[in-house]
Design brief:
292 residues; alpha+beta; mRNA Triphosphatase Cet1, Chain A; eight-stranded antiparallel beta barrel; 8 helices
Length: 292
């Protein structure tokens, strides 16, 4: 990605990405690792590699993108039980950290942390699944503020209509109504939430020019118990610092995310590789792996 792109181009792309994130159809596939290379090569011939373009974006070449998601639930696993009972109508609550590993810096690094690029915040999300479509409310939150947010002591809880996240520095994705809706949902719960489980994976993402279709390939999807120092770490939530995984998925998880119908070539290629759509929830698999 070139630094020469105009601010308006970056802003337009960010808005298109936000629209796809907020409301989309999702179809998932478990693709054996033996078929990943061929699938990615074909998808890359049709779609462009997708990279985050917002504040703090990593512009260095050839990064390896990783995602760490912390899922929240009550002590009685209320959200897990609801997701198992009805796969098409449920709510998941998570905080996500994105980080990049830079193999190109390995020869120059004197410490492993020097090849990691990340920002000291998480993207807090409430994801609702309704009849095959996923809708998200999301905003950015400093990791140090997460415990206070869940205790209801964060500034967002003191206002009925919070200021836009960017202005209040609570986050800068979404508008005031999204943050207000998240606060309203958390207030409606009968039990407080706590970190339930953690998921980490490497992600390859490709997207069309209109941001109406995104294909992600998640590799080495691994599930962990949530460590106790999630919000006090001075470094990224990097794979290898959570202890041994409770389970690691042997296949790659392919997700087709679209605002409309997916192109025919995509279905044909997945069918040629012998895979069919599956019902798959990282939250459900992680909670089962961690809590039995």
């Amino acid at each position: 990605m070139s630094d020469a792109r105009s601010a308006s181009e970056v802003q337009t792309e960010a808005h298109a990405d936000a629209a796809l994130t907020a409301d989309r159809a999702e179809t998932k596939y478990l693709l054996p690792r033996s078929g990943v290379r061929a699938f990615v090569q074909l998808a890359a011939s049709k779609l462009a590699v997708h990279r985050f373009v917002g504040e703090g974006a990593n512009l260095l070449p050839d990064p390896q993108h990783f995602v760490t998601s912390i899922y929240f639930d009550s002590v009685d696993h209320e959200h897990f039980r609801a997701a198992v009972a009805d796969e098409e109508h449920n709510v998941k609550i998570r905080a996500r950290e994105y980080y990049d590993l830079m193999p190109s810096l390995a020869e120059l690094a004197t410490d492993s942390s020097q090849i990691v690029r990340y920002q000291p915040w998480v993207w807090f999300e409430v994801k609702q699944r309704v009849q095959g479509r996923s809708r998200k409310l999301r905003f950015r939150l400093d990791k140090r503020d997460v415990p206070a947010f869940f205790r209801g002591e964060h500034a967002a809880f003191s206002r009925s209509r919070p200021e836009p996240p960017g202005a209040a520095r609570e986050g800068d994705a979404g508008d005031a109504s999204e943050l207000a809706d998240i606060v309203r949902y958390l207030r409606s719960l009968s039990e407080p939430l706590q970190p339930s489980c953690l998921v980490n994976y490497r992600r390859l993402a490709l997207q069309d020019a209109s941001a109406s279709l995104r294909v992600t390939v998640d590799l080495e999807v691994s599930y962990y118990a949530a460590p106790g120092d999630l919000w006090t770490r001075s470094h990224a939530l990097v794979r290898g610092t959570f202890g041994a995984p409770a389970f690691t998925e042997s296949s790659a998880l392919v997700e087709v995310k679209s605002t409309g119908a997916a192109p025919p070539w995509l279905g044909r290629e997945l069918a040629r590789l012998g895979v069919s759509p599956v019902s798959y929830s990282k939250f459900v698999h992680a909670a089962r792996a961690v809590h039995g």
